[in-house]
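thought: fold this chain, then report.
action: predict
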Amino acid sequence: MKPELKIVLAAPRGFCAGVDRAIQIVELALQKYGAPVYVRHEIVHNKFVVDSLRDQGAIFVEELDEIPDDGQPVIFSAHGVPKSVPAAAEQREMFFIDATCPLVSKVHREAERHHKSGDHIILIGHAGHPEVIGTMGQLAPGAVTLVENEEDVAGLTVPDENNLAYCTQTTLSVDDTANIVKALQQKFPNIKEPRKEDICYATTNRQAAMKAIAPLSDAVMVLGAPNSSNSNRLVEVARLNGCDKAILVQRVHEIDWAWLDGIKALGLSAGASAPEILVDEVIEKAREYFDVTIEEVSITQENVNFKVPKILTA
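observation:
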Protein backbone atom coordinates (compact mmCIF):
# COMPACT_ATOMS: atom_id res chain seq x y z
CA MET A 1 0.00 0.00 0.00
CA LYS A 2 1.35 3.45 -0.99
CA PRO A 3 1.98 6.01 1.74
CA GLU A 4 -0.32 9.05 1.70
CA LEU A 5 1.02 12.39 0.47
CA LYS A 6 -0.83 15.68 0.42
CA ILE A 7 0.53 18.08 -2.20
CA VAL A 8 -0.10 21.67 -1.14
CA LEU A 9 -0.07 23.71 -4.35
CA ALA A 10 0.83 27.40 -4.18
CA ALA A 11 -1.29 29.75 -6.26
CA PRO A 12 -0.25 31.86 -8.05
CA ARG A 13 2.76 29.90 -9.36
CA GLY A 14 4.59 29.54 -12.68
CA PHE A 15 4.49 31.85 -15.68
CA CYS A 16 4.05 35.59 -15.19
CA ALA A 17 2.79 37.98 -17.89
CA GLY A 18 6.31 39.17 -18.81
CA VAL A 19 7.57 35.63 -19.39
CA ASP A 20 4.43 34.69 -21.30
CA ARG A 21 4.85 37.75 -23.55
CA ALA A 22 8.56 37.04 -24.20
CA ILE A 23 7.86 33.44 -25.25
CA GLN A 24 4.99 34.59 -27.48
CA ILE A 25 7.33 37.11 -29.14
CA VAL A 26 9.78 34.35 -30.12
CA GLU A 27 7.00 32.01 -31.31
CA LEU A 28 5.25 34.74 -33.34
CA ALA A 29 8.57 35.84 -34.88
CA LEU A 30 9.24 32.22 -35.95
CA GLN A 31 5.76 32.00 -37.47
CA LYS A 32 6.05 35.32 -39.30
CA TYR A 33 9.67 35.32 -40.44
CA GLY A 34 10.59 31.62 -40.38
CA ALA A 35 13.65 30.06 -38.79
CA PRO A 36 16.17 31.00 -37.68
CA VAL A 37 15.19 33.66 -35.16
CA TYR A 38 18.12 34.71 -32.99
CA VAL A 39 17.69 35.34 -29.27
CA ARG A 40 20.33 37.19 -27.27
CA HIS A 41 20.68 35.41 -23.94
CA GLU A 42 18.12 32.89 -22.65
CA ILE A 43 14.73 34.45 -23.40
CA VAL A 44 13.71 33.47 -19.85
CA HIS A 45 15.60 31.45 -17.26
CA ASN A 46 14.17 28.01 -17.92
CA LYS A 47 15.82 25.14 -19.79
CA PHE A 48 12.51 23.49 -20.77
CA VAL A 49 11.30 26.73 -22.39
CA VAL A 50 14.65 27.44 -24.11
CA ASP A 51 14.93 23.88 -25.45
CA SER A 52 11.36 23.96 -26.77
CA LEU A 53 11.98 27.27 -28.61
CA ARG A 54 15.29 25.92 -29.94
CA ASP A 55 13.37 22.94 -31.36
CA GLN A 56 11.10 25.41 -33.18
CA GLY A 57 14.08 27.16 -34.80
CA ALA A 58 15.31 29.75 -32.28
CA ILE A 59 19.08 30.14 -32.02
CA PHE A 60 20.33 31.38 -28.65
CA VAL A 61 23.49 33.47 -28.50
CA GLU A 62 25.25 35.40 -25.75
CA GLU A 63 26.38 38.33 -27.90
CA LEU A 64 25.39 39.96 -31.20
CA ASP A 65 28.75 39.20 -32.84
CA GLU A 66 27.70 35.52 -32.95
CA ILE A 67 24.86 36.43 -35.35
CA PRO A 68 25.39 36.51 -39.14
CA ASP A 69 24.08 39.39 -41.27
CA ASP A 70 21.23 37.37 -42.76
CA GLY A 71 18.40 39.82 -42.05
CA GLN A 72 16.61 37.46 -39.67
CA PRO A 73 15.11 38.88 -36.46
CA VAL A 74 17.13 39.22 -33.26
CA ILE A 75 15.17 39.18 -30.00
CA PHE A 76 16.38 40.68 -26.72
CA SER A 77 15.45 38.67 -23.63
CA ALA A 78 12.79 39.47 -21.03
CA HIS A 79 15.49 40.58 -18.56
CA GLY A 80 16.35 43.69 -20.56
CA VAL A 81 19.64 44.80 -22.13
CA PRO A 82 22.10 47.68 -21.72
CA LYS A 83 21.59 50.54 -24.21
CA SER A 84 24.83 49.52 -25.92
CA VAL A 85 23.12 46.38 -27.29
CA PRO A 86 20.36 48.01 -29.42
CA ALA A 87 22.92 50.67 -30.41
CA ALA A 88 25.26 47.94 -31.72
CA ALA A 89 22.32 46.23 -33.46
CA GLU A 90 21.34 49.51 -35.17
CA GLN A 91 24.92 50.06 -36.28
CA ARG A 92 24.83 46.67 -38.02
CA GLU A 93 21.33 47.43 -39.39
CA MET A 94 19.95 44.37 -37.64
CA PHE A 95 16.22 43.77 -37.39
CA PHE A 96 15.68 43.49 -33.64
CA ILE A 97 12.63 43.02 -31.43
CA ASP A 98 12.79 43.86 -27.73
CA ALA A 99 11.09 41.31 -25.43
CA THR A 100 12.07 43.16 -22.24
CA CYS A 101 9.35 42.74 -19.62
CA PRO A 102 7.36 46.01 -19.38
CA LEU A 103 7.90 46.01 -15.60
CA VAL A 104 11.69 45.89 -16.14
CA SER A 105 11.37 48.70 -18.71
CA LYS A 106 9.53 50.73 -16.05
CA VAL A 107 12.61 50.46 -13.78
CA HIS A 108 14.83 51.56 -16.70
CA ARG A 109 12.71 54.67 -17.36
CA GLU A 110 12.60 55.46 -13.66
CA ALA A 111 16.40 55.32 -13.37
CA GLU A 112 16.69 57.61 -16.43
CA ARG A 113 14.16 60.07 -14.98
CA HIS A 114 16.03 60.34 -11.68
CA HIS A 115 19.38 60.63 -13.48
CA LYS A 116 18.03 63.48 -15.65
CA SER A 117 17.00 65.38 -12.55
CA GLY A 118 20.54 65.08 -11.17
CA ASP A 119 20.18 62.10 -8.84
CA HIS A 120 22.75 59.36 -8.35
CA ILE A 121 21.03 55.96 -8.57
CA ILE A 122 21.35 53.18 -6.00
CA LEU A 123 20.23 49.88 -7.53
CA ILE A 124 19.31 47.04 -5.17
CA GLY A 125 20.00 43.76 -6.96
CA HIS A 126 22.26 40.78 -7.58
CA ALA A 127 25.61 41.47 -9.27
CA GLY A 128 25.93 39.75 -12.64
CA HIS A 129 22.20 39.07 -13.09
CA PRO A 130 21.14 40.00 -16.67
CA GLU A 131 18.42 42.33 -15.37
CA VAL A 132 20.95 44.23 -13.23
CA ILE A 133 23.40 44.45 -16.15
CA GLY A 134 20.55 45.81 -18.31
CA THR A 135 19.40 48.39 -15.77
CA MET A 136 22.91 49.64 -15.01
CA GLY A 137 23.54 49.81 -18.75
CA GLN A 138 20.76 52.37 -19.26
CA LEU A 139 23.05 55.07 -17.87
CA ALA A 140 26.68 56.09 -18.18
CA PRO A 141 29.29 54.17 -16.15
CA GLY A 142 29.39 55.51 -12.57
CA ALA A 143 25.81 56.82 -12.61
CA VAL A 144 24.48 53.73 -10.80
CA THR A 145 25.82 52.06 -7.65
CA LEU A 146 24.76 48.46 -6.96
CA VAL A 147 24.01 47.28 -3.43
CA GLU A 148 23.24 43.63 -2.71
CA ASN A 149 22.63 43.66 1.06
CA GLU A 150 22.54 45.76 4.22
CA GLU A 151 26.34 45.41 4.67
CA ASP A 152 26.82 47.12 1.29
CA VAL A 153 24.61 49.99 2.49
CA ALA A 154 26.67 50.37 5.68
CA GLY A 155 29.86 50.90 3.67
CA LEU A 156 28.28 53.09 0.99
CA THR A 157 29.56 56.53 0.06
CA VAL A 158 27.68 58.66 -2.48
CA PRO A 159 28.49 61.83 -4.44
CA ASP A 160 25.67 63.86 -2.81
CA GLU A 161 23.33 62.59 -0.08
CA ASN A 162 20.64 65.07 -1.11
CA ASN A 163 20.55 63.98 -4.77
CA LEU A 164 19.95 60.27 -4.46
CA ALA A 165 17.30 57.79 -5.63
CA TYR A 166 16.96 54.02 -5.44
CA CYS A 167 15.38 51.38 -7.64
CA THR A 168 15.41 47.60 -7.46
CA GLN A 169 15.67 44.45 -9.52
CA THR A 170 12.13 43.14 -10.09
CA THR A 171 12.69 39.58 -8.81
CA LEU A 172 14.11 40.09 -5.31
CA SER A 173 12.97 38.83 -1.93
CA VAL A 174 10.27 41.24 -0.78
CA ASP A 175 11.36 41.00 2.88
CA ASP A 176 15.12 41.27 2.24
CA THR A 177 14.58 44.27 -0.03
CA ALA A 178 12.39 46.00 2.58
CA ASN A 179 15.29 45.68 5.06
CA ILE A 180 17.81 47.08 2.56
CA VAL A 181 15.47 50.00 1.74
CA LYS A 182 15.08 50.69 5.46
CA ALA A 183 18.88 50.76 5.86
CA LEU A 184 19.17 53.15 2.88
CA GLN A 185 16.47 55.46 4.28
CA GLN A 186 18.11 55.51 7.71
CA LYS A 187 21.52 56.33 6.22
CA PHE A 188 20.22 58.76 3.57
CA PRO A 189 16.93 60.30 4.85
CA ASN A 190 16.45 62.30 1.62
CA ILE A 191 16.75 59.34 -0.77
CA LYS A 192 13.92 59.27 -3.33
CA GLU A 193 11.90 56.09 -3.76
CA PRO A 194 10.16 54.64 -6.83
CA ARG A 195 6.71 56.04 -7.62
CA LYS A 196 5.46 52.48 -7.52
CA GLU A 197 7.02 49.31 -6.07
CA ASP A 198 9.76 47.95 -8.38
CA ILE A 199 9.51 44.31 -7.28
CA CYS A 200 6.99 42.94 -9.75
CA TYR A 201 3.50 41.72 -8.91
CA ALA A 202 4.38 38.13 -9.88
CA THR A 203 7.43 37.91 -7.60
CA THR A 204 5.42 39.44 -4.74
CA ASN A 205 2.44 37.12 -5.26
CA ARG A 206 4.53 33.95 -5.56
CA GLN A 207 6.43 34.80 -2.37
CA ALA A 208 3.17 35.53 -0.52
CA ALA A 209 1.73 32.19 -1.70
CA MET A 210 4.90 30.44 -0.49
CA LYS A 211 4.53 32.11 2.92
CA ALA A 212 1.01 30.65 3.04
CA ILE A 213 1.98 27.06 2.13
CA ALA A 214 5.37 26.72 3.89
CA PRO A 215 3.90 26.36 7.42
CA LEU A 216 1.47 23.70 6.09
CA SER A 217 4.28 21.63 4.50
CA ASP A 218 6.83 19.12 5.82
CA ALA A 219 8.92 19.74 2.68
CA VAL A 220 8.77 22.25 -0.17
CA MET A 221 9.77 21.81 -3.80
CA VAL A 222 10.13 24.78 -6.18
CA LEU A 223 10.32 24.14 -9.91
CA GLY A 224 12.71 26.54 -11.59
CA ALA A 225 16.18 27.05 -13.00
CA PRO A 226 19.32 27.42 -10.85
CA ASN A 227 19.96 30.83 -12.48
CA SER A 228 16.38 32.04 -11.93
CA SER A 229 16.42 34.75 -9.25
CA ASN A 230 12.71 34.57 -8.43
CA SER A 231 12.80 30.74 -8.14
CA ASN A 232 15.75 30.82 -5.75
CA ARG A 233 13.98 33.44 -3.64
CA LEU A 234 10.97 31.10 -3.28
CA VAL A 235 13.20 28.42 -1.71
CA GLU A 236 14.58 31.03 0.69
CA VAL A 237 11.08 32.24 1.58
CA ALA A 238 10.00 28.65 2.34
CA ARG A 239 12.96 28.17 4.70
CA LEU A 240 12.30 31.46 6.46
CA ASN A 241 8.61 30.70 6.90
CA GLY A 242 8.46 27.38 8.65
CA CYS A 243 9.81 24.80 6.20
CA ASP A 244 13.57 24.14 6.46
CA LYS A 245 13.37 21.19 4.05
CA ALA A 246 13.08 23.11 0.76
CA ILE A 247 14.74 22.51 -2.60
CA LEU A 248 14.87 23.86 -6.14
CA VAL A 249 14.51 21.34 -8.99
CA GLN A 250 14.48 21.94 -12.74
CA ARG A 251 12.60 18.83 -13.87
CA VAL A 252 10.97 15.77 -12.38
CA HIS A 253 13.88 13.46 -13.36
CA GLU A 254 16.16 15.32 -10.91
CA ILE A 255 14.03 14.37 -7.89
CA ASP A 256 15.39 11.84 -5.42
CA TRP A 257 12.10 10.45 -4.14
CA ALA A 258 13.82 9.05 -1.05
CA TRP A 259 14.06 12.73 0.00
CA LEU A 260 10.32 12.53 0.68
CA ASP A 261 10.52 9.54 3.04
CA GLY A 262 8.29 10.23 6.04
CA ILE A 263 6.85 13.41 4.45
CA LYS A 264 3.08 13.78 4.77
CA ALA A 265 2.62 17.22 3.14
CA LEU A 266 4.68 18.51 0.19
CA GLY A 267 4.45 22.18 -0.72
CA LEU A 268 4.80 22.72 -4.47
CA SER A 269 5.36 25.93 -6.42
CA ALA A 270 7.08 27.12 -9.58
CA GLY A 271 9.11 30.21 -10.41
CA ALA A 272 7.75 32.84 -12.81
CA SER A 273 9.65 31.35 -15.77
CA ALA A 274 8.59 27.73 -15.16
CA PRO A 275 5.64 26.37 -17.18
CA GLU A 276 2.76 24.53 -15.49
CA ILE A 277 3.63 21.33 -17.36
CA LEU A 278 6.65 20.93 -15.03
CA VAL A 279 4.30 21.00 -12.01
CA ASP A 280 2.02 18.45 -13.70
CA GLU A 281 4.99 16.12 -14.32
CA VAL A 282 5.89 16.14 -10.62
CA ILE A 283 2.31 15.42 -9.51
CA GLU A 284 2.00 12.60 -12.06
CA LYS A 285 5.29 11.00 -10.95
CA ALA A 286 4.42 11.42 -7.26
CA ARG A 287 1.30 9.30 -7.85
CA GLU A 288 3.60 6.35 -8.69
CA TYR A 289 5.07 6.46 -5.18
CA PHE A 290 2.25 7.89 -3.07
CA ASP A 291 -1.48 8.00 -2.63
CA VAL A 292 -1.71 11.69 -3.57
CA THR A 293 -4.31 14.25 -2.58
CA ILE A 294 -4.10 17.85 -3.77
CA GLU A 295 -4.91 21.00 -1.87
CA GLU A 296 -4.46 24.34 -3.62
CA VAL A 297 -3.85 27.41 -1.47
CA SER A 298 -4.72 30.49 -3.53
CA ILE A 299 -3.92 33.94 -2.18
CA THR A 300 -4.95 35.98 -5.24
CA GLN A 301 -6.03 35.74 -8.89
CA GLU A 302 -3.69 37.17 -11.52
CA ASN A 303 -5.13 38.69 -14.68
CA VAL A 304 -2.19 40.76 -15.93
CA ASN A 305 -1.59 40.59 -19.67
CA PHE A 306 1.06 42.42 -21.73
CA LYS A 307 0.61 43.06 -25.44
CA VAL A 308 3.24 41.84 -27.89
CA PRO A 309 4.89 44.38 -30.25
CA LYS A 310 2.54 45.42 -33.11
CA ILE A 311 5.06 44.38 -35.76
CA LEU A 312 4.35 40.73 -34.91
CA THR A 313 0.59 40.94 -35.22
CA ALA A 314 0.32 43.32 -38.21
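thought: worth noting. The chain has three domains: 4-15+201-298, 17-101, 103-199.
final: C-alpha coordinates above.
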